[in-house]
Amino acid sequence: MEQLVETLSIDLEQERKDILKKYRRLLRTAKPFLKDNDAKLIKKAFYTSVEAHKDMRRRSGEPYIYHPLAVAQIVVEEIGLGTTGIVSALLHDVVEDTDMRIEDIDRLFGKKVAKIIDGLTKISGRFEYGTSQQAENFRKMLLTLSDDVRVILVKLADRLHNMRTLDSMPRDKQLKIASETIFIYAPLAHRLGLYSIKSELEELYLKYTEPQEYRAISRKLRETKSSRDRFISKFTEPIAEDLEKAGLNYIIKGRPKSIYSIWNKMRKQNKPFEEIYDLFAIRIVLESPQEGDREKALCWQAYSIVTDHYKPNPDRLKDFLSTPRANGYQSLHSTVMSKSGQWVEVQIRTSRMDEIAEKGYAAHWKYKGNDTKVRGNIEQWISQVRETLETGSGDKTAAIEFLDEFRTNLFNEEVFVFTPKGELKVLQSGATALDFAFDIHSEVGVHCMAAKVGGVLVPISYVLSNGDQIEIITSNKQKPTEDWLRVVRTSKARARIKDFLKEDNRHYETDGRQMVERKLKVLGIELTAEVVNQLRAFFECKTAADFFYKIGKGYVQLDELKRFKRDKEAKERKAVTAVIVPPVEGADGKSYTKLLKNLHGDRADSDTLLIGDDMDKIDYKLAPCCNPIAGDDVFGFVTINEGIKIHRTTCPNAAELMSKHGNRIIKAKWESNKDEAFLAGLYISGTDRVGLINDVTRIISNELHINMRGLTIDTKDGVFNGDIRLYVQDTRHLDILISKLEQVEGVYNVQRFDTNLTGSV
Ligand code: MN
């Protein structure tokens, strides 16, 4: 993101002073947390980073070290991390941007720091193209949660500083970084409970993407400030008086809502600024001498004082005191009616809760001695995320799908329910009894029949309400169906059901294949690869597997194979006829063999379609039945509605097309200098070993720089079978890849396949 800039006239002495000043400020902030050797370690990290980045400058022209220093400052001051976090922040760009290697970090700072830096380097924005890469990156980032949550926290600090210094970036980069921030980082900060960081990221996002609206809203906020302040002080006056009388230590703030949330509201409700009423919330922060039940009592006492003066809306009372949000947030929220007839949100919490709400996760560690429950929640969340991630496959579309689901989960509020033994489970709001069953255990999930809520029998689609106590009823005969996917809300349950259905389908597929094989034998047909393809086409299935599945399931009756036989025989008779007798209706009267011979001619004469070259002028498409790529032997087929389709001469449909519609065939050749990528598929098989998939993907993306679209690998009893879909330039390119892959230890067969490239994996 940053780059080297030629230095013109820079006061190096002044810069050196500035760097030291920033460093001393960092040490001062960190001081209360430091023990034993901590200061020494930070100093070492600081000098290592200074040395490593010494010749680098940020795009703004500043010395590069300003950036790691600022990130470290955020890490300690705004997130509250200790020495390991500070050291990691100081070194976070060293491996990616300088000559230092991860081994050097390990040697100098130990395993823990090295692991964090490694995680940070891996998730850094190396891939710039397309959302799928971003999604995959994000998935990688969350995977590192399993190692150390500090990776994410330092990454957030890094992103925050980059957003704060976005001014020096060109416009396109600003937009890219800002949208990534709103899409991924702000929700993540929210989920980790880093409220103020989340708000700042959102604010900066708006500032760079909608600068005019941002300025307009902030101007209007300023203009209305004094009347708002008058309202707030009038509203809080009687409350403050009574809090005083009750002898409570408190602070009352009228907190304006963020510009981003106001903008969001205006957009969602399609209203001008003037009609948005809840521009602020009242927050009462109470000083509590000790932690625990006393805190809760204090908050309720304050609540009772507020409602002595203002009538509360019973539907809007939220008690996050007794059941904190999964990110640890605790507070009492209520909406009350002011004297002037306006609803006002009031939040009541203690100063400890307030700090947790602002600093989130990191603040928990400060209080960790007494707050195992909150910490437990965070750990529960992290393990949930990990589980979801581990069930996802490595393929790109899966990464995007995952990201969507993850984001949905981020924004949903939770529902709190209980097991029969009284154990609390937190699920996303809208979750059903079936989700609950899967949350308990996959085995309970897949055999779930119904549930009992408070002793009453309910179906699996029952939507959970807060406080429900649920007993799951299971049966060994029960198993998931496609319909279940519509019943569940959580990504965990969905992933498990999908896994199960996949397994289940495979079994129908093998059954189907055996049934077909037996039946065809009776009919005197052998099940060769060619016949499989003919069957697929005849029964209009996307893949052969699909066809066998339909047979196995009984969607296609075995008896229909007789019809297939008749059709096949008729076609074979026709094909033979076509070769011998020129078709009468064929305008040019060419026979199939002549046609084919002609197509193979090397000369590109005037009536040859040049693929690539003629692209802009002529409407042609690559046929999905054989997916030609540049370099393949091909011909064009003039269709009735879809322009010209390019087929390979080896296409399973080629014979039929040429023999039936010889007059619609045209010659086609590839124009070689076009820079285009073609989707191709490879089957790969061999014996399984650790690291094999890594080796395969390394060749594809690192060595040959080929973009993968999808990868599925199935391993069974030490043998693996995979299919890879990727974009290649031409057949030569594909041949190089195939021969490279064949050299990988364990791989014994790599083969191109043609059909169903665009279908789901
Ligand atoms: Mn950075």
UniProtKB/TrEMBL annotation:
<dbReference type="Pfam" id="PF04607">
    <property type="entry name" value="RelA_SpoT"/>
</dbReference>
<dbReference type="Pfam" id="PF02824">
    <property type="entry name" value="TGS"/>
</dbReference>
<dbReference type="Pfam" id="PF19296">
    <property type="entry name" value="RelA_AH_RIS"/>
</dbReference>
<dbReference type="InterPro" id="IPR045600">
    <property type="entry name" value="RelA/SpoT_AH_RIS"/>
</dbReference>
<dbReference type="InterPro" id="IPR007685">
    <property type="entry name" value="RelA_SpoT"/>
</dbReference>
<keyword id="KW-0378">Hydrolase</keyword>
<comment type="similarity">
    <text>Belongs to the relA/spoT family.</text>
</comment>
<dbReference type="InterPro" id="IPR003607">
    <property type="entry name" value="HD/PDEase_dom"/>
</dbReference>
<dbReference type="InterPro" id="IPR045865">
    <property type="entry name" value="ACT-like_dom_sf"/>
</dbReference>
<dbReference type="InterPro" id="IPR004811">
    <property type="entry name" value="RelA/Spo_fam"/>
</dbReference>
<comment type="function">
    <text>In eubacteria ppGpp (guanosine 3'-diphosphate 5'-diphosphate) is a mediator of the stringent response that coordinates a variety of cellular activities in response to changes in nutritional abundance.</text>
</comment>
<dbReference type="Pfam" id="PF13291">
    <property type="entry name" value="ACT_4"/>
</dbReference>
<dbReference type="InterPro" id="IPR012676">
    <property type="entry name" value="TGS-like"/>
</dbReference>
<dbReference type="Pfam" id="PF13328">
    <property type="entry name" value="HD_4"/>
</dbReference>
<dbReference type="InterPro" id="IPR004095">
    <property type="entry name" value="TGS"/>
</dbReference>
<feature type="domain" description="TGS">
    <location>
        <begin position="412"/>
        <end position="474"/>
    </location>
</feature>
<dbReference type="GO" id="GO:0005886">
    <property type="term" value="C:plasma membrane"/>
</dbReference>
<dbReference type="InterPro" id="IPR002912">
    <property type="entry name" value="ACT_dom"/>
</dbReference>
<dbReference type="InterPro" id="IPR033655">
    <property type="entry name" value="TGS_RelA/SpoT"/>
</dbReference>
<protein>
    <submittedName>
        <fullName>Bifunctional (P)ppGpp synthetase/guanosine-3',5'-bis(Diphosphate) 3'-pyrophosphohydrolase</fullName>
    </submittedName>
</protein>
<dbReference type="InterPro" id="IPR012675">
    <property type="entry name" value="Beta-grasp_dom_sf"/>
</dbReference>
<dbReference type="InterPro" id="IPR043519">
    <property type="entry name" value="NT_sf"/>
</dbReference>
<dbReference type="GO" id="GO:0015969">
    <property type="term" value="P:guanosine tetraphosphate metabolic process"/>
</dbReference>
<dbReference type="GO" id="GO:0016787">
    <property type="term" value="F:hydrolase activity"/>
</dbReference>
